[in-house]
Write a structure and sequence with these properties.
The structure holds 2 protein chains of 2 kinds. Chain A is about 45% helix and about 10% strand. Chain A has helices spanning about 5-15, 20-35, 35-55, 65-80, 85-90, 95-110, 120-125, 140-145, and strands at about 165, 180-185, 205-210, 220-225. Chain A folds into 3 domains: about 5-55, no CATH class; about 65-110, no CATH class; about 120-135 and about 150-225, no CATH class. Chain A has 8 helices and 4 strands. The longest helix of chain A has 23 residues, at about 35-55. The radius of gyration of chain A is 45 Å and the shape is elongated. Chain B is mainly alpha-helical. Chain B has 2 domains: about 10-90, Rna Polymerase Sigma Factor, Chain: A, CATH 1.10.1740; about 110-190, Orthogonal Bundle (Arc Repressor Mutant, subunit A). In chain B, helix 2 (about 20-40) crosses helix 4, helix 6 packs across helix 8 (about 160-175) and helix 7 (about 145-155) crosses helix 8. Classes of the chains: A alpha+beta, B mainly alpha. At the A-B interface, helix 3 and helix 4 of A face helix 2, helix 3, helix 5, helix 6 and helix 8 of B.
């Protein structure tokens, strides 16, 4: 046995636990021949003695009886609960799932909320125009007596222009507010003075409405296109 | 049913199903070890008492989650205790040195003072060890667990326990043995548990 092997065994050798008899004999023989390892064995035995003295000083220490009494009370209370209550204490999974669902809904509502427009460049670049007077579409009764004719192409919507919904000064521009996108029936264009083909009044269109930042009133509208 | 002959696992199983006697038996069997572990780790009786209470409250509430495949019941209990001790020491509940040794029999009154001083110096040396070394000293040297049991408690490899224990012993020897008085006392006083 060399000194390295002895060092690996010396702790258990000093405490008389661990090494097998053959290892013990070999280690003891090495300690007789090696002064350094012999002093290591003495040192380990002295350390084991000190630690044993300390362990003995607290060997009979234990928690005071009041701890046991409190715990037995707690045990009785726990097992006096109805089964459903015990389940809820032991497995609050439903609460976690509910909390996660609420969190997701709140996060989605926050992400999808209407964003305020502090200085929308689109508004600055497209001044609000006065309504364009347009003729009213032909009545349906007249069309019924006429031969079928080819449907004229839809008139393109002036997507870049906002139309005022409230009286505005000439040349004034909207400098702030909130833009919200809405869907509306195509036939509602007539109420804004826009021509509507009675054959093509179905379907829906999309529009953007400017809401006043202070009052929330709709101030202008522009038509974005047909809704799919 | 006889609680004394039942294993820890059997007692825990019965306890989970509401057997109060099984819980009491398991508590009486294991509370002292948990208390001493917390006391020797922290040096605080108050913290040790709190730790015992928290460990067995956790057993009452979550004993059903114990998995025998993960280790013996003692490892489960000491593992909970270890977490509470670390938390308590983190809050500054340690180091009050209120774990004075219990009075010894006055058969050798001339040795009492020297013995008390030696015990105090060993306690101070153990408490001065870094926590990861203190844990293996308390478990292996003071609670006399083998390295496998200590590894289960600490959640590490047996080799890690052995290397930490070796290092901790060298640190303790460096603190305790150069003092000539301590060495003399150690030679003069035989440890109480070694007395036949």
């Amino acid at each position: 046995m060399n000194c390295g092997e002895f060092e690996a065994l010396v702790g258990n050798l000093a405490r008389e636990r661990g090494p097998e008899e053959s290892e013990r004999r070999a280690a003891t023989a090495h300690a007789r021949e090696c002064a350094g390892c012999s002093s290591r064995l003495v040192e380990e035995r002295e350390l084991a003695g000190l630690l044993g003295l300390f362990a003995a000083s607290v060997a009979r220490r234990a928690a005071p009886p009041r701890v046991e009494a409190a715990l037995l009370d707690a045990f009785a209370r726990q097992h006096a609960l109805p089964p459903a209550r015990r389940r809820s204490l032991a497995l609050p999974l439903w609460a976690l799932v509910a909390a996660a669902a609420v969190t997701l809904v709140v996060a989605a509502a926050w992400l999808l909320r209407p964003r305020p427009v502090l200085a929308p460049p689109a508004l600055a670049e497209s001044p609000i125009l006065a309504p364009v007077p347009v003729p009213v579409a032909a009545p349906v009764a007249q069309r019924a007596t006429q031969p079928r004719r080819r449907r004229p192409p839809r008139r393109e919507l002036p997507a870049a222009q906002f139309y005022p919904l409230t009286p505005v000064d000439a040349g004034a521009q909207i400098q702030g507010g909130t833009i919200v996108r809405i869907g509306m029936p195509r036939r509602a264009l007539a109420s804004f003075g826009w021509p509507v083909d009675p054959d093509d009044s179905g379907g829906a269109i999309e529009a953007e409405v400017v809401l006043d930042g202070d009052t929330g009133m709709a101030r202008a509208i522009r038509f974005v296109g047909s809704r799919q | 049913m006889n609680e004394e002959n039942a294993s820890d696992g059997e007692l825990l199983e019965r306890m989970v199903s509401g057997d109060r006697d099984a819980f009491a038996a398991l508590y009486r069997r294991r509370q002292a070890g948990v208390y001493r572990f917390a006391l020797q780790m922290s040096g605080s009786e108050a913290l040790a008492e709190d730790v015992v209470q928290e460990v067995f409250l956790a057993l009452i509430r979550a004993g059903a989650t114990y998995d025998p495949a993960c280790g013996p019941v003692t490892a489960f209990l000491y593992g909970i205790a270890r977490n509470h001790v670390r938390r308590g020491m983190g809050r500054g509940c340690h180091g009050s040195a209120d774990n004075a040794p219990e009075p010894l029999a006055a058969d050798h009154p001339e040795n009492d003072l020297a013995r008390s001083q030696t015990i105090a110096s060993v306690r101070a040396a153990v408490l001065a060890l870094p926590v990861r070394y203190r844990e293996v000293v308390v478990l292996c040297e003071l609670e006399e667990m083998d390295c496998r049991e200590a590894a289960d408690v600490l959640g590490c490899a047996v080799g890690t326990v052995k290397s930490r224990l070796h290092r901790a012993r060298r640190m303790l020897a460096g603190r305790l043995l150069p003092a000539g008085a301590t060495l003399a006392v150690a030679r003069a006083i035989r440890p109480a548990r070694c007395v036949p």
